[in-house]
Design goal:
Elements lengths: L35 H13 L7 H83 L3 H19 L8
Helix pairs in contact: 1-2, 2-3
């Protein structure tokens, strides 16, 4: 031994037959999503008695296949969770669009209902202004200015009033 280094001796080498099963699954590739009893059973049988599955090769294949299925199951569960979240987001968006659609449909209905009234108010306003100018030029009385003022008010109401129903 060079330099005074001494190789330590192992207290439990594992070669005396007193091995015990570990508390956790001894195969790190085996997914934790499998039922613990199934995973422990497969790994335990494969580690302790490889011949139970037909030999070391067969037991390694079984543990590998189980690990692959568990990995695919985990991937499927993650994908399903993501799809469910996306579905919830899309449902929320559709709901918001339905509300917006209902608001806009109500505004269109309101516009259709008030369109004729607004046109009549504009026509009456124009008529009052025209007659107001006739009265002012012919009689030069106060009533002509009143007709012009009321006609102007009707025109403004007809032009600038919009249907307000359906707001949030």
């Amino acid at each position: 031994m060079a330099g005074g280094l001494k190789i330590p001796e192992l207290e439990d080498s594992g070669s005396d037959g007193r091995q015990v099963e570990a508390d956790s699954i001894s195969n790190p590739n085996l997914s934790r999503s499998l039922a613990p009893s199934l995973a422990r059973a497969i790994v335990g049988i494969a580690n302790s008695n490889a011949r139970a599955f037909g030999g070391e090769v067969a037991s390694a294949l079984l543990v590998g296949a189980t690990s692959q299925m568990a990995s695919e199951l985990d991937d499927s569960k993650r994908e399903l969770a993501a799809m469910r979240q996306q579905l919830q987001d899309l449902k929320r968006a559709v709901s918001q669009e339905k509300v917006q659609n209902a608001i806009l449909a109500e505004r269109i209905d309101s516009y259709r209902a008030t369109r004729h009234i607004k046109n009549i108010v504009i026509a009456v306003g124009t008529l009052l202004i025209g007659n107001g100018f006739k009265v002012v030029t012919s009689e030069s009385g106060f009533s002509g200015f009143a007709f012009i003022a009321v006609g102007g008010l009707f025109l403004l109401l007809g032009w600038y009033t919009a249907p307000k129903r359906g707001d949030k």
